[in-house]
């Protein structure tokens, strides 16, 4: 069933009102007819199954049939902090990371990031990433849309670490030396509702200085198995492992 | 350190001889000089660290310094059977799946596969996929290059199931109904050195008939958490979960 995110104000007295792009999508792209059903989610609040009553390309109205339980979110909240990678890799990280359950994305300018974004470019990029997150969240039946921040300086990344319950750094050298315990220990230490920040380097990895600064703030270095993962693959590993640990082994 | 796969015949009496594209890569792309070190792997056999002695764009020779232990392979062998997806998604599956430790890839023509490949096209595609697997295997420090088969008919997929110790089917309906135990149970039942086949549908999923035929052959249906994953994302989940289970928790 097609899914759409709506604002709280669009759901009143069990009537949903959809406007803008989503109305266009329902009427002109999907060509849905009255009595067709859709799912609408107010992020972080209700999810409703509803039946379409009136359809035009400007406004679609629908009547709620059922309030659906929200059980599709990972028990812990995981924010992916990615050292700005090359090309459109961050788009892949945001799309697949959203499917795999990330709560948010925080790109940062790492010492070895080759891409430099000025404020104007960064704003445009962040807008595009946010759109990708919304579409992937709808497609994967998420109940929230992960937030994608504008790229921050490394110092700002250090400053926000204390806002999280735990912080781990995916570190290639840990993988090479066979470190295997940290990710399991971290997951075991985190209770439902806690917040985890996971930091990934750009293509060249984090610099030694960056690693030292992160660990000085309490971050733990963490291996992700013996194979060397690309910068865009490592977040998928952490998110899938979190789902396996908290949702399947449970 | 740069890594190359070589044939068994290229390693004799602790001398490695590299020819062709890899010799060109060492001499002209990386511009390495004598005394530089590289790692060479005979797939499924030895991995050696060696020091370059002679370099030309046609032939490079190197002397073995150390035999390196092969510990980078997943304890169980996992073959990814993907219902042929659209566009270049299979390239992404092969690249990232190789980084994440897959042993092989077997594309198959599913009832809902939109792409149809004739033999000539299929051969060309398989060649390209195999090249992607080789590059990803080098980059991620694998000790084998996963095999990528030419796409097979669904009936052939059914026929090879008995060659594996276990077969699971990633099934969207299992995810929707909250099935969470099968993947964990399957991993727990598999000992080191066993072979697992994992079947994924194309974009529209597997048909009911296909699912029935697979389960009739002993395949188990399996959920991958509550979020609906795209056809190219689901294999990453299974491989990362396998690494978490066998390599980090192990």
UniProtKB/TrEMBL annotation, chains A, B:
The UniProt entry, under InterPro entries, shows:
Alpha/beta_knot_MTases, PUA-like_sf, RsmE, RsmE_MTase_dom, RsmE_PUA-like, tRNA_m1G_MTases_N
Q: Which domain of life is it from?
A: Bacteria
Q: Which keywords describe this protein according to UniProt?
A: Cytoplasm, Methyltransferase, rRNA processing, S-adenosyl-L-methionine, Transferase
Q: Which residues form the Ribosomal RNA small subunit methyltransferase E PUA-like domain?
A: 20-64
Which positions carry the signal peptide feature in this UniProt record? none
Q: Keyword Chloroplast, does the record have it?
A: no
Pfam families in alphabetical order: Methyltrans_RNA (PF04452), PUA_4 (PF20260)
In short, the EC number is: 2.1.1.193
GO MF terms listed in the record are: rRNA (uridine-N3-)-methyltransferase activity
Q: Which GO terms describe its biological process?
A: rRNA base methylation
Is Cytoplasm one of the keywords? yes
Localization, UniProt: Cytoplasm
Per its UniProt entry, what is the enzyme's top EC class, as one word? transferase
Ranges where the Ribosomal RNA small subunit methyltransferase E methyltransferase domain occurs: 73-242
Q: So what does this thing catalyse?
A: uridine(1498) in 16S rRNA + S-adenosyl-L-methionine = N(3)-methyluridine(1498) in 16S rRNA + S-adenosyl-L-homocysteine + H(+)
Identify the GO cellular component terms for this protein. cytoplasm
The text of the family note is: Belongs to the RNA methyltransferase RsmE family.
- Main function: Specifically methylates the N3 position of the uracil ring of uridine 1498 (m3U1498) in 16S rRNA. Acts on the fully assembled 30S ribosomal subunit.
Which PANTHER family does the entry mention? 16S RRNA (URACIL(1498)-N(3))-METHYLTRANSFERASE, RIBOSOMAL RNA SMALL SUBUNIT METHYLTRANSFERASE E
Protein name according to UniProt: Ribosomal RNA small subunit methyltransferase E
Its taxonomic path starts at: Bacteria, Bacillati, Bacillota, Bacilli, Bacillales
């Amino acid at each position: 069933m097609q899914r759409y995110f709506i604002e709280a104000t669009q759901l009143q007295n069990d009537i949903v009102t959809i406007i803008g792009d989503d109305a266009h999508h329902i009427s002109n792209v999907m060509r849905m007819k009255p009595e067709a059903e859709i799912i609408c989610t107010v992020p972080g609040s209700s999810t409703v199954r509803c039946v379409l009553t009136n359809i035009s390309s400007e406004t679609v109205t629908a009547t709620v049939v059922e309030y659906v339980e929200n059980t599709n979110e990972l028990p812990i909240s995981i924010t992916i902090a990615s050292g700005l990678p090359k090309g459109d890799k961050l788009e892949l990280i945001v799309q697949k990371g959203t499917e795999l359950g990330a709560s948010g994305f925080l790109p940062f300018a790492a010492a070895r990031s080759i891409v430099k974004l000025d404020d104007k470019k960064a704003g445009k990029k962040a807008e595009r990433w946010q759109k990708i997150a919304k579409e992937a969240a709808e497609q994967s039946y998420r109940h929230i849309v992960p937030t994608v921040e504008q790229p921050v300086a490394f110092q700002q990344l250090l400053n926000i670490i204390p806002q999280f319950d735990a912080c781990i750094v995916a570190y290639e050298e840990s993988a090479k030396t066979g470190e295997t315990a940290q990710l399991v220990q971290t997951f075991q230490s985190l209770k439902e509702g806690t917040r985890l920040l996971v930091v990934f380097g750009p293509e060249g990895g984090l610099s030694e200085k960056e690693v030292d600064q992160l660990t000085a703030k309490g971050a733990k270095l963490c291996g992700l198995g013996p194979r060397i993962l690309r910068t865009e693959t490592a977040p998928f590993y952490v998110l899938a492992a979190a789902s396996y640990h908290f949702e399947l082994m449970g």
